[in-house]
Amino acid sequence: MKQATIDDILEPGDSHTDQERARRVASGFWRTFKRASRHIPFADELVAAYFCALDPKTPLRVRGTLLAALAYFVLPFDMVPDFILGLGFTDDIAVLTAAIANMRANIKPQHRKAAQAAIERFARSA
Fold first, then answer.
1. What is the DSSP letter of 59?
2. Which residues contact 62 (CB under 8 A, 6 or more apart)?
3. CA distance 41 to 115
4. Which of 99, 75, 70 is nearest to 7 (CA)?
5. Which of 9, 43, 116, 121 has the most neighbouring CB atoms within 10 Å?
6. Residue 29: CB partners within 8 Å, gap ≥ 6?
7. Which of 53, 55, 46 lies closest to 68, judged by CA?
8. Domain ranges of the chain
9. What is the DSSP letter of 105?
């Protein structure tokens, strides 16, 4: 995936765009995570980024970038549709890796703790 394309995807939006992304992420994250978790080697970081993006204490630009990446993740059809076996989540992984790498300093211990607890609950319910 070209860097310019990833940069375009990760561009934070205005407040309306970020609110729409937050709604989309909140409604579809766990369903998509269930399908993708075995394909994503950094699932714990992904869930921590989810909690960071939804934390109102996270700086707006960071929230916007993470919400953009997470919204791309939950979209059922993107550059490489998620249903394509073996390739479906590769573009999502590229976008998420770029976002998380750039925003890692903003993912706090409380986000990681919430992620660990959520993943444990998720594993018990699966």
1. -
2. 52, 53, 103, 106
3. 15
4. 99
5. 9
6. 50, 70, 73, 74
7. 53
8. 3-125
9. G
| Distance set, CA 21 to CA 25, 54, 66, 107, 120 (Å) | 6, 11, 10, 19, 26
96: DSSP letter: H
Q: Which residues, 6+ apart, have CB-to-CB distance to 105 below 8 Å?
A: none
Alpha helices (H) along 42-103: 43-54, 60-74, 90-103
C-beta separation of 46 from 96 below 8 A: yes
Residue for token pair 């994250």: 29
Any idea what DSSP says for residue 60? H
- Alpha carbon distance 75, 29 (integer Å): 10
Distances (CA, A) of 114 to 10, 20, 117, 121: 24, 23, 5, 11
The tens digit of pLDDT for each residue in 34-52 reads 877 777 788 899 999 999 9
Residues 63-121 pLDDT 10s: 999 999 999 888 765 554 444 444 556 777 888 999 999 999 999 999 999 999 999 98
Interatomic CA distance for residues 90 and 36, integer angstroms: 10
